[in-house]
């Protein structure tokens, strides 16, 4: 009897916690889980007028068969992986390099100013950044090509040449994100015990040896962690960025799964086919996300919660 | 102990500083150019003469915008969604992070609810199912379609939850001893000491709402319901359209029309849309490391 009373007490003490969670749980149940249930569209011949959970004709995996028999699906998947992987690799290397160089600056004020400036593009939308880049990179009146012309270089169609487009996307993505990406490495660098450096100086280690034996090992676990977590983005080519800068001339190298899903679904109103393509992306992504969390836990003891 | 820098070290430091200055300039220059273009004469802009300073200084692009209603209509929609959306985000983050920061013995259903939220990061339903749910719940063309589907930012919630979990146990025990319930503990004890992380996620919620354009594009059928960035997107993708659409609006405009181009008015609108961001993020910078890094990465 004492035990049951205690349990009742405990529930009474936990009750406010349930109430706190209630609004968020309801919203997530409707908008996240409701949408997840909505992936049944991929297995139907979906007619929107009949409603999301209305009476629809089931077609099994027919939409997937149609999807994978489309002539450009292979190209789209390849483009996605190429762009995403390049962003992933450069997205670790550049911020780490920047953090290491900035860390050599002694003046705290100078450091702060540099940080404020390089964070700026991160906080702006791809709509604004694309607007700026389209103007800057324009072959005729863009600042970059005018500069290249002065150096005697032929104008480059950064956004109109299929060979240049993916590299332009990767470079501009790094431009937007490297500054803020370095926050976490800078924090790790300031966390290194100064006594280690003092000991190294006494042992006669020069700057390079200090960097090699103290600084790099000091941030290696966070670098591993960020690289592993980056795997989760294997199929994220960056919709906002690419949608605002691509055009049919660069579909051969620039069309990614997300833009493909968008055009199928919203522009061509092929709801079932678009959902099937989206479900393929989400399914593969989920495997990578779970794997990345597992590896992160295994290598660095990182836990999501 | 200060050791005098050696010669190679000095050379390194100078080169390093020069390199960092170039990097910083690369980050800043496009925006300075944007500002210069917005205040320049359209022919100078078209000739590519404008770099960092306005050529043929004029405010005519800004005058043109103040006379077009679409920019201000979309600005109002953005202010509206931000004013509703950010407080809702914040309230839901706090109300979820606190219970989930409890130990399993204090809140037995913790794992269940944690998984409930984390699954939404693991699996994305995709474009069409999400659109259909928003449509089914009757939010099309309503400002709530920009607020409710993303009302619980799970990543931010995890950051706050991890931060709350790292607070010293004694603090919470003391509150408990004093007879404080969960609500009192949350409001009086936990929230005040969580200020750095709350500041960070507030900034993120604000930036998210201010920068979102895709939801406006798919959930709003009428252009007068477009938030600022969605409207800007139409200007960016189809700049000539903007000028043409505004030609027949009022006689007042026609006198500017010959003096502005898509480039100059586009630049002016983009710059105006950047201002709120420029005003906020530098002042919250000191919280990024304490609030974000501490919250997401545990030792």
What does this structure look like?
The complex is a heterodimer of chains A (305) and B (299). Chain A is mainly α and 305 residues long. Chain A contains 14 helices and 2 strands; from the N terminus they run H-E-E-H-H-H-H-H-H-H-H-H-H-H-H-H. Chain A has a two-stranded antiparallel sheet. By secondary structure, chain B is mainly α. Chain B has helices spanning 7-38, 42-46, 60-66, 69-100, 110-122, 127-136, 154-165, 169-177, 182-193, 195-211, 214-219, 228-237, 239-247, 251-257, 262-296. The two termini of chain B are 30 Å apart. At the A-B interface, helix 1, helix 3, helix 4, helix 5 and helix 8 of A face helix 1, helix 4, helix 5, helix 6 and helix 7 of B.
Largest sheet of chain B, if any? none
Mean pLDDT across all residues of chain A, rounded? 91
Mean pLDDT across residues of chain B: 87
Total strand count of chain B, please? Answer: 0
Topology of chain B as a string of helices (H) and strands (E): HHHHHHHHHHHHHHH
Instruction: Tell how many strands the DSSP assignment of chain A holds.
Output: 2
Radius of gyration of chain A: 25 Å
Q: Which word captures the global form of chain B? A: globular
Distance between the termini of chain A: 35 Å
Give the count of helical stretches of chain A: 14
Helicity of chain B, as a percent range: over 70%
Low-confidence stretches of chain A: none
Q: How much β-strand is present in the residues of chain A?
A: under 5%
- The sequence of SSEs of chain A as H and E is HEEHHHHHHHHHHHHH
């Amino acid at each position: 009897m004492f035990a049951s009373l205690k349990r009742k007490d405990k529930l009474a003490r936990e009750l406010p916690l349930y109430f706190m969670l209630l609004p968020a749980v309801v919203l997530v149940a409707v908008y996240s889980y409701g949408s997840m249930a909505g992936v049944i569209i991929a297995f139907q011949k979906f007619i929107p007028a009949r409603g999301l959970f209305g009476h629809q004709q089931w077609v099994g995996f027919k939409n997937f068969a149609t999807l994978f028999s489309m002539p450009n699906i292979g190209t789209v998947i390849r483009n996605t992986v190429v762009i995403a992987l390049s962003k992933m690799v450069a997205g670790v290397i550049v911020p780490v390099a920047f953090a290491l160089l900035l860390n050599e600056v002694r003046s705290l004020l100078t450091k702060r100013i540099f940080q404020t400036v390089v964070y700026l593009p991160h906080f702006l939308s791809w709509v604004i950044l694309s607007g700026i880049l389209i103007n800057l990179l324009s072959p005729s009146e863009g600042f970059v090509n005018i500069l290249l012309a002065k150096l005697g270089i032929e104008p480059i169609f950064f956004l109109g040449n299929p060979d240049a487009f993916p590299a332009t996307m990767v470079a501009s993505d790094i431009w937007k994100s490297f500054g803020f990406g370095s926050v976490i490495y800078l924090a790790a660098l300031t966390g290194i015990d100064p006594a280690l450096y003092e000991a190294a100086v006494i042992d006669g280690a020069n700057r390079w040896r200090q960097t090699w034996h103290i600084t790099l090992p000091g941030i290696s676990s966070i670098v591993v962690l960020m690289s592993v977590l980056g795997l989760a983005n294997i199929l994220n080519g960056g919709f906002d960025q690419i949608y605002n800068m691509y055009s049919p001339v660069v579909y051969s190298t620039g069309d990614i799964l997300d833009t493909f899903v968008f055009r199928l679904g919203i522009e061509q109103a092929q709801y079932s086919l678009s959902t099937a393509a989206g479900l393929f992306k989400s399914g593969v992504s989920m495997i990578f996300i779970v794997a990345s969390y597992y590896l992160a836990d295994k290598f660095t003891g990182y836990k999501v919660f | 102990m200060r050791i005098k820098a050696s010669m190679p070290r000095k050379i390194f430091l100078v080169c390093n500083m020069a390199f960092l200055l170039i990097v910083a300039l690369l980050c800043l220059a496009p925006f300075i150019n944007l500002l210069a273009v917005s205040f320049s004469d359209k022919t100078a802009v078209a000739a590519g003469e404008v770099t960092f300073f306005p050529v043929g200084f004029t405010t005519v692009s800004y005058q043109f915008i103040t006379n077009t209603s679409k920019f201000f209509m979309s600005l109002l929609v953005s202010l509206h969604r931000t004013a509703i959306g950010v407080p809702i985000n914040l309230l839901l983050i706090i109300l979820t992070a606190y219970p989930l920061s409890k130990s399993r013995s204090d809140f037995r259903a913790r794992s269940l609810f944690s998984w409930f939220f984390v699954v939404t990061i693991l699996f994305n339903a995709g474009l069409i199912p999400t659109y259909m749910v928003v449509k089914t719940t009757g939010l099309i063309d309503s400002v709530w379609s920009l607020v409710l589907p993303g009302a619980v930012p799970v990543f931010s919630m995890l950051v706050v939850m991890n931060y709350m979990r790292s607070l010293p146990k004694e603090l919470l025990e003391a509150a408990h001893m004093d007879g404080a319930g969960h609500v009192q503990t949350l409001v009086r004890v936990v929230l005040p000491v969580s200020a750095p992380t709350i500041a960070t996620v507030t900034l993120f919620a604000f930036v998210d709402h201010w920068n979102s354009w895709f939801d406006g594009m798919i959930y709003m059928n009428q252009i007068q319901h477009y938030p600022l960035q969605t409207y800007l997107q139409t200007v960016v993708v189809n700049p000539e359209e903007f000028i043409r659409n505004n030609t027949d609006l009022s006689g007042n405009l026609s006198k500017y029309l010959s003096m502005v181009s898509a480039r100059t008015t586009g630049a002016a609108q983009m710059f105006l849309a950047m201002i709120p961001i420029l005003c906020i993020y530098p002042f919250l910078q000191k919280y990024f490391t304490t609030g974000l890094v501490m919250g997401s990465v545990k030792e």
